[in-house]
Amino acid sequence: MSIEQAESSQMLAAAAAEPAMPPPARSLIRQAYHDTLASVLARIGLAWLFMLAFFAVFAPFLADSHPYVMKVNGRWSSPALIHLTPADVLLLIATATVVVLAIWRRLSFLRSLGLIAAVVVVAAAPVYLLVRPPVNVDYSQYRDDLASGKIQKAIFAPVPYSPRDRLRDQPEARLEKPSRRHWLGTDTNGADVFSLLLHASRIALSIGFIATSISVVIGVLVGAVMGYYVGTVDLLGMRAIEIFEAIPQLFLLITITALIQDRNIYVMMAVIGATSWTGYARFLRAEFFTIRKLDYVQAAVAAGLPTRIILFRHMLANALTPILVSTTFGVASAILYESILSFLGIGLVDEASWGAMLQQARAGGAGFVLWIAIPPGAAIFLTVFAYNLVGEALRDALDPKLRKRD
Amino acid sequence: MLPTLLGVTVVVFFVMAFSPGGVGASLLNAEGGLRPEERRMMQAYYTARYGLDKPRIVQYLNWLNHVSPVGLKAKGEGFPNAWPVGFKAPDLGEAFSTHRKVSSMIAEALPITLLLELLSLPLVYSISIWTGIRGARSRGKFADVSLGFVLIGLYSLPSIWVGVLMIGFLSNVKYLHWFPTNGLHDLMSDSMTFLPTTMHGHFERGWLLDTAWHLCLPVICLSYNSFAFLSRLQRGALLESLNQDYVRTARAKGLSERVVIYRHAFRNSLMPMITVAASILPGLIGGSVVIESIFGIHGMGKLTVDAVFSRDREVLMAVTLIASLLQLFGNLISDLTYAVADPRVSYVD
């Protein structure tokens, strides 16, 4: 049972009690955006999330063992660029699109989302064909070559360690205390904790976003169909929802994830998404119940519009509010679930993850290690906290009951 | 309720059945160092024993028949002795990995988890009722806002982190060695007396106190997440009943604020708190997965995680069945308490 369930049921009751709301001057999303920004806490939360997003996008440039540029035998090269993976490049392209859209500001919110998705899809094929980073990576070659003078000049990232740069043949590099070389120390394998932390933010944010998107899409589809057709469809849908809600989510999640042998990030997203859609379906169904007999819907039916258009263009636009709020909380809980799975040892294999780092701090063979335990937990906490604060502010902004009181 | 339960078993069974690698394969991986013919024999043994070569639907129906108290049975067992169909004792099967009866494993684990839950429930309730009342009384003021902030903070605090830090700081020889690191009892607990005693002049803590000492950290860790939800519910309900006419009447009569709040408003605001009690329980069961594996307590959560690692179909099915049963049972109780607590609610026309 989570906060948003209690809140949203109250909110639904409030929305049902006051059907005649004055039409907002600006679009709902823009209005909510402005009201949300009015809250100081939400602003702090958003600032943290933006910082995290920055870290996530530019992680390979902030923490990388490969130098930005280096001079070998009088020739300059850029190992950092060469070692970018296709996913890195795609992420950079998507970020560039977001920045352009943020400056240009001509498209509506939903259209911008569509455009970003389109850019990513179009760019995916050429990027995956063209970008081929070297398969074998030898991190210590830079240190050796620099020491022997083979690399004449090199510029390194602020944190010159990749998360997988484990100083394998240097047992003394393990469990180093925080120092100027390793800002947050090293873990039991000798990897730099700060670098791990930065790279893990990618996993957390992407799983949060995409898992929630998947569950919203499933929930909206199921909920819309249930709320519109009522009757048998609704009955069957409700039984399905009851079945999914009868299994404690963590149990289901653990069972499914553990049974999948080659887990990758996409599988994790799909599994977390596929187990947390019931809330959205419930909300949307309830909303659709209240609006399906309204005049404008009946008018759309009478005009002979296809059901798809009635459902997703006319009705959905007026029922987005509870979904929007619980999406924010949904991202928070998806991040929590990912970290719990990694913590239990059934998360991603050989990827930097906050949950896995915590696990290492507990049972990494060295007992409790302070500098491994504090940072990843704090990162999870702050991120989840930020999402919850933003969600709270958003809910207050969208709650008609609260708005009237002002 | 029964169809839902059936649906749960279908979902879990087929998730497991369609998982790549299947159930049997991992068993063989666990038994490393086998020669090929031994391997084949093991495989044949498991396949025959659990019917893994049959179609999945047959496997499922087979499992269902074993679990259900009514169904096909051997002659000479169960209720109508001579019939092949009738009542029988439900059989949860035998664990793949430990070769023990699943029912006895669950009989060991379930009371421990329920104990954790039943201990944390009063803690959660007393604290969130208190904070809820505080929040409602000072609505919109600093105390209310800051309480709300702190509660969202607690709600966002990941229990994996809190658990690790608690063990790391509060039960670590390097820092504060106040609490035991793991388990539910001391190694010597079997030879302890039940109640604390003073033997030969020095204090013996006894079995009861020892268990309580071991339970402190896990119960706190399991509880603090639920404060935000319940406290908010209490606050909303109290605010609602403070707006009612009878509260105005009570104030107009000149009753003290204390009496107005605790005797008039608070009692009527308890409704939603009572009804969510049963649905809080399953959430705590989910949370116990994490808590139990951090604190090394052998309850349902630990059983699940262990079963997941050994891909033990029988244990996993049984655990999910029990967890879902508890959840549905909780929903039922919450419906019933709803009717008992509020005489206006009636399930009979």
Helix-strand blueprint:
The complex is a heterodimer of chains A (406) and B (349).
Chain A lengths: L2 H15 L10 H11 L1 H18 L1 H4 L6 E4 L2 E3 L1 H4 L3 H19 L4 H22 L9 H9 L2 E5 L37 H37 L1 H16 L2 H11 L5 H11 L2 H14 L3 H8 L4 H9 L4 H24 L10 H10 L6 H29 L1 H6 L1
Antiparallel strand pairs in A: 1-2, 1-3
Helix pairs in contact in A: 1-13, 1-16, 2-18, 3-9, 3-18, 6-7, 9-10, 9-12, 9-13, 9-16, 9-18, 11-12, 13-16, 14-15, 16-17, 16-18, 17-18
Chain B lengths: L1 H16 L4 H9 L5 H15 L5 H12 L2 E3 L12 E3 L14 H36 L4 H15 L2 H12 L26 E3 L2 E3 L1 H18 L3 H16 L2 H8 L4 H12 L2 H25 L4 H10 L3 H29 L8
Antiparallel strand pairs in B: 1-2, 3-4
Helix pairs in contact in B: 1-14, 5-6, 5-8, 5-9, 5-12, 6-9, 7-8, 7-12, 8-12, 9-11, 9-12, 10-11, 12-13, 12-14, 13-14
Textual characterization of the structure:
The complex is a heterodimer of chains A (406) and B (349). Chain A contains 19 helices and 3 strands. Residues 8-21 of chain A have low confidence and may be disordered. Chain A has a 3-stranded antiparallel β-sheet. The longest helix of chain A has 37 residues, at 193-229. Chain A has a domain at 26-64 and 182-406: MetI-like fold, CATH 1.10.3720.10. Chain A has helices spanning 3-17, 28-38, 40-57, 59-62, 79-82, 86-104, 109-130, 140-148, 193-229, 231-246, 249-259, 265-275, 278-291, 295-302, 307-315, 320-343, 354-363, 370-398, 400-405, and strands spanning 69-72, 75-77, 151-155. Chain B contains 14 helices and 4 strands. The radius of gyration of chain B is 26 Å and the shape is globular. The chains are: A mainly alpha (406), B mainly alpha (349). The interface between A and B is large, with 55 and 59 residues.
